[in-house]
Write a structure and sequence with these properties.
The structure is a homodimer.
Chain A lengths: L13 E12 L2 E9 L8 E2 L2 E3 L6 H13 L5 E8 L10 E9 L13 E8 L10 H18 L10 E2 L1 H12 L5 H10 L3 E8 L7 E6 L34
Parallel strand pairs in A: 1-6
Antiparallel strand pairs in A: 1-2, 1-4, 2-3, 2-7, 5-6, 8-10, 9-10
Chain B binds a DNA duplex through α4.
DNA sequence: CCAAAAGTGTTGTTTATACACCCATGT
DNA sequence: ACATGGGTGTATAAACAACACTTTTGG
């Protein structure tokens, strides 16, 4: 009735919580990797992450590992997908609950510690040769990020509390990898009603000062889509049939 | 180096793969529940699911448990979310990789077996008192289903290979809980270009026969949204700055 | 006064909504 | 002949895409 090992042969899978942390640096989308200290995959670049502690929450494990290995904290974190294909970890059956996180491009001190021998921000193109199936996790996270850009307010997570519309536009352009029209972008983003002027401006160079904006409801990432099929609540008199009760068969 | 128990005290969490199976029955969205045979929560209704077998894939476990406990197979399955809050299972730390599945409303033989003492299709309103945190999983699955309806082709998974536009409209109406305008619905769905006429018709009653349609690319559930911010690929001459290489800091 | 980024409006096109009648069949 | 569900078009409104110049500042 007692067990003392984490070696293969254990009938329960190993569960880890891992994070893909994105930021925008030097006008480019980058993500945070650690160089692994130990086997398996010692010396290779990998996502920050760790096995779950007893009774630890999944998000908590991701944030704890992130802080311990890279020194990064205070990120916006969301669960991404759970990876569990047999063979993905040489130690045996291993389930990775992957998360993704976004941090403002501001100054962030990185500090490699714990399992991390080194830490760094990498561009997408440099992340094809990672430990485990982490390249696949990165690809999934990136796809999710791009998709969510258009119908949610995640983009704001890359910016500090106050920002200019040009900065916001640059976030979209960097992630979407295409230039956007300034006027149309402004109309579009303001129509979502997710941000408001602070009333202040920022002066930064020999040009007209930029108005500062803030997120209206800073707590949360919200859905800002407006689409639906079909239109019109049907024939005037008609009513949706809500049928009988009880499980069937 | 050997272990022979599944009892608490194990330092690794228990991992289960569970499924929320939706179908449309009697004009209503319903989901498949089993009555648990054993503790914990013996006698209560719960989602089909089971602990992972050694080296078993997550999807495979969900499909295996579904077939074993309910007799249902051949479903469209997608991973939903992973639930792992401490305390969600009285046996100790337990991670549930939840999936959701869609099946056509056709005749499906249910057959309770294994952990399932009984099986049945239940309406949403009847699923508030489930074992574990399964009510929360159901709520998450339902929200995902509703959201995906509008921007993907999942709705087709509720229908057999050939179907009429009225049947398809009924799927949308049932899930969205509102009636839709027939003409607008048809314009909308045909504009997505995801379905095509088979050339055949179905005669069912004393009325005009209905044209049959099929999904163009039956393999996959696709994204059919068309939205983007900003418009216009920027000032003509301008080029996106793609900056320097190498990890920073 | 020059360079640099901020800011701003109009027009054409596409997509969504509202709405009502005729058609083909079985009984 | 009638009841039943299948099938169709048009006009208005809203959202999106294309496009270029003026403003404010610092140096």
């Amino acid at each position: 009735m007692l067990t003392m090992h984490t070696a293969p042969g254990n009938e329960r899978p190993l569960v880890t919580s891992d994070v893909v942390v994105f930021t925008i640096r030097d006008g480019e989308l980058r993500l945070l990797l650690i160089k692994r200290r130990h086997e398996p995959h010692g010396g290779r670049w990998a996502l920050p992450g760790d096995t779950l502690l007893p009774d630890e929450d999944l998000e908590h494990a991701a944030l704890r590992a992130l802080a311990a290995q890279t020194g990064v904290s205070g990120v916006y974190l969301e669960q991404l997908y759970t990876f569990g294909k047999p063979g993905r970890d040489p130690r045996g059956q291993a389930i990775s609950v992957a998360h993704y996180a976004l941090v403002p491009s501001e100054q962030l001190r990185l500090r490699a510690a714990g399992e991390a021998a080194a830490v760094g921000w990498f561009a997408r193109e440099q992340t094809s040769d990672l430990a485990f199936d982490h390249a696949e996790i990165v690809a999934t996270a990136h796809a999710r990020l791009v998709a969510k850009l258009d119908y949610s307010t995640i983009a704001f997570q890359f910016l500090p509390a106050e920002f200019t519309l040009s900065e916001l536009q640059r976030v979209y352009e960097t992630i979407r990898q295409e230039a956007l029209d300034k006027r149309n972008f402004r109309k579009w983003i303001l129509a979502r009603r997710a941000i408001e002027e602070t009333g202040e401006v920022r002066r930064d160079g020999s040009h007209r000062p930029a108005r500062l904006y803030r997120v209206k409801y800073p707590g949360r990432v919200e859905i800002i889509r407006h689409e639906r099929p079909g239109g019109t609540r049907g024939q005037p008199g008609r009513e949706m049939a809500l049928h009988e009760r009880g499980p069937s068969q």
